[in-house]
Write a structure and sequence with these properties.
The complex is a heterodimer. By secondary structure, chain A is mainly α. Chain A contains three helices and two strands, in the order αααββ. In chain A, a hairpin with a 2-residue loop joins strand 1 (85-86) and strand 2. Chain A is flat and about 55 Å long. Chain B has a single domain, classed as Amidase signature (AS) domain (Amidase signature (AS) enzymes). Helix content of chain B is 36%, strand content 12%. Chain B has helices spanning 4-12, 16-24, 30-48, 107-114, 157-164, 181-187, 221-231, 275-290, 306-321, 361-372, 375-388, 393-414, 440-445, 451-456, 484-498, 506-520, and strands at residues 51-54, 76-80, 118-123, 170-174, 190-193, 214-218, 261-265, 294-298, 420-424, 460-468, 471-478. Chain B is globular. The chains are: A mainly alpha, B alpha/beta. At the A-B interface, helix 1 and helix 2 of A face helix 9, helix 10, helix 11, helix 12 and helix 14 of B.
């Protein structure tokens, strides 16, 4: 497997909504490459005829419940942990507009 | 001044089952039990730092069946801090959930409360259960009661330390790649990872959903069966919950394993195991043989690929599960600061805001997550995002899913011939604090013997099997799907025959004795309130 570059790491960080300061970035790139090199060990395995396992249990049957209304959390309870709320809603920074 | 500490060793030294018997005979009240454990926890926690939060002075009385409930009435317990309990914080050992109070109880919390158990508090853990030493907690490290300069294991390290030091009667942890069994091994107690789906995950904060499972950490095998009886069984709130009813697992505690077929996988006894660990496990295997079990070597040929497979699948699932921490509905939110003030060259493309303006939504997400998550969690989110990203999915994630099939088939093949497998839980005893933090890969490799069990969704139990260099060694017993009855029977038989049951760390006994001596001399008043 090819090593990941600082630019690729920047791209992945943006996808994951994470950032690093410039000083610790090279260390991160090094660590990620070391881990990726280790997990590339799997390329030794011939898996051409092996089906993938996504789950330990056989979950082919979908799980549904009766479509009956049930009481959920009260609005105040749902908002109690919010960092910011207003008028019964989660308040967030500007989404559109600005520049 | 009440003689709390003087009274505590006698009650807190009991197992949950023994305490339950005294409660039943009304020789001890639930209030006595609560006070004894609370004062011992308060006295020892400054040295061990096992708890993130200890509940208030009086137990929450859940109602009628409490105290008299035959299962766990009046027995104090603790929860790993990724299991929700109404009224207590749930941080997952992360700064991003600092101050979060879940508005509901996990199913296991409900079931334990209904069985009459009394919740003492929440225990320390590696952040979001990502770690094998408790050193990745966003708050502080926990010490091993056997040697305060050693790690208790992880990620359920606080829970294991608390049970080992008799600070609580039992605890629940979670096990994604060994996080119940490895700390149980390092602290000399019993830790069970049940079959995937046997215990509801509702209210367990998700790390890697196809691998996570809640399990008990207890002083002995009997307590393990008792706690499992209280928490196992189908839950409609968890769609991956197996369609099986709970049952009374204590009926499998029979000290007879004549004719049981046990396999010892050679890949688990090879290089990289400390000699003292190997010797203790070999003695245990010989002991089981002497008790009438048929022991034979076997092979799980894909063992060496387990860790690599896990470090694709678990971070992939985690990167998705942890996307919810965005600073909107709960937990930490990066506040007030202006965009670009601290983020440097690595700032992602989505982070830009208007020059000098307040953080926009995307920048708020990024800043919140970068501030709130610790280094190990960020590292794993990066790995997970990478292996799922366009162009790499087939090479990494799909490949790992296929490797997972091979690991699973290894077990299916051997369980055609064996009732259970016997292995070391970890290749080492508890390592010194700081020994592995600089090298993430070395930390990962400590889970080489526990990870494959999660991959296959099987049950595994770690029980103490002696000491090496004065530190506990864990014996892992692995069963087939829903093989808990076999594992409990085997573990109980070994515990009974070996006499190795809740070994006590001398360091803690010495600390308690010293504290008591000071109190007896009138030196210090009011230790624990």
């Amino acid at each position: 497997m090819p090593a990941v570059s600082a630019a690729q790491v920047r791209h992945v960080a943006a996808l994951a909504r994470l950032s690093w300061d410039e000083r610790s970035a090279p260390k991160l790139v090094g660590e990620l490459n070391e881990i990726l090199a280790y997990i590339s060990k799997l390329s030794e395995l011939d898996t051409a005829d092996v089906p993938p396992t996504s789950h330990a249990l056989d979950l082919r049957d979908n799980v549904l419940r009766e479509d009956e209304p049930r009481k959920g959390l009260a609005q105040a309870e749902a908002l109690a942990d919010a960092p910011d709320s207003e008028a019964g809603m989660f308040r967030v920074p500007r989404v559109v507009g600005g520049q | 001044m009440t003689p709390l500490l003087a009274a505590s060793p006698s009650i807190t030294a009991l197992t949950a089952a023994e305490l339950r018997e005294l409660l039943r005979r009304r020789e001890v009240s639930a209030a006595d039990a609560w006070q004894a454990y609370m004062s011992r926890a308060a006295a020892l926690d400054p040295a061990l730092r096992a708890f993130l939060e200890i509940a208030g002075d009086t137990p929450e009385v859940p109602g009628a069946p409490w105290e008299t409930h035959p299962l766990l009435g009046g027995v104090p317990f603790a929860l790993k801090d990724n299991i929700c309990a109404r009224g207590l914080f749930c941080t997952c050992g992360s700064r991003i959930l600092e101050g979060f109070r879940p508005p509901y109880d996990a199913t296991v919390t409900v079931r334990l409360r209904e069985a009459g158990a009394m919740l003492m508090g929440k225990t320390n853990m590696d952040e979001f259960a990502m770690g094998s030493s408790c050193e990745h907690s966003g708050y502080f490290a926990t010490a091993n009661p056997w040697a305060l300069d050693r790690v208790p294991g992880g990620s359920s390290g606080g829970a294991a330390a608390a049970v080992a030091a008799d600070m609580t009667a039992f605890a629940l942890g979670s096990d994604t790649g060994g996080s119940v069994r490895q700390p149980a091994s390092f602290c000399g107690i019993v830790g069970l990872k049940p079959t995937y789906g046997l215990v509801s995950r509702y209210g367990l904060v998700a790390f890697a959903s196809s691998l996570d499972q809640i399990g008990p950490l207890t002083k002995d095998v009997t307590d393990c069966a008792l706690v499992l009886s209280a928490i196992a069984g189908h839950d409609p709130m968890d769609s991956t919950s197996a369609r099986v009813a709970g049952e009374d697992y204590t009926r499998y505690l029979v000290p007879d394993i004549k004719g049981m077929r046990l396999g010892v996988p050679r890949e688990y006894m090879g290089e990289g195991i400390e000699p003292g660990v190997r010797a203790a496990v070999e003695r245990a295997v010989a002991g089981l043989n002497g008790m009438g079990a048929e022991v034979e070597e076997c092979s799980l040929p894909h063992t060496e690929y387990g860790v690599a497979t896990y470090y694709i699948i678990a971070p992939a699932e985690a990167s998705s599960n942890l996307a919810r921490y965005d600073g909107v509905r709960y937990g930490h939110r990066a506040g007030g600061a202006r965009a670009g003030a601290t983020t440097g060259a690595m700032t992602g493309a989505g982070a830009g805001t208007g020059a000098g303006g307040d953080l926009d939504l995307a920048a708020m997400y990024e800043r919140t997550r970068s501030e709130g998550f610790g280094a190990e969690v960020r590292r794993r989110i990066m790995i997970g995002t990478y292996v799922l990203s366009a162009g790499y999915y087939d090479a990494y994630y799909l490949k790992a899913q296929k490797a997972r099939t091979l690991v699973k088939q290894d077990f299916e093949n051997v369980f055609a011939r064996f009732d259970a497998l016997v292995t070391p839980t970890a290749p080492t005893v508890a390592f010194p604090i700081g020994a592995k933090t600089a090298d993430p890969l070395q930390m990962y490799l400590n889970d080489v013997f526990t990870i494959p069990v999660n991959m296959a969704g099987l049950p595994g139990i770690s029980i103490p099997c002696g000491l090496s260099e004065g530190l506990p060694v864990g014996l892992q017993l692995i069963g087939p799907h829903m093989g808990e009855p076999t594992l409990l029977r085997l573990a109980y038989a070994y515990e009974t025959a070996s006499g190795i049951r809740h070994p006590r760390p001398a360091a803690v006994n010495a600390a308690v004795a010293a504290a008591e001596a000071i109190r007896a001399a009138g030196g210090v008043g009011g230790v624990a309130k």
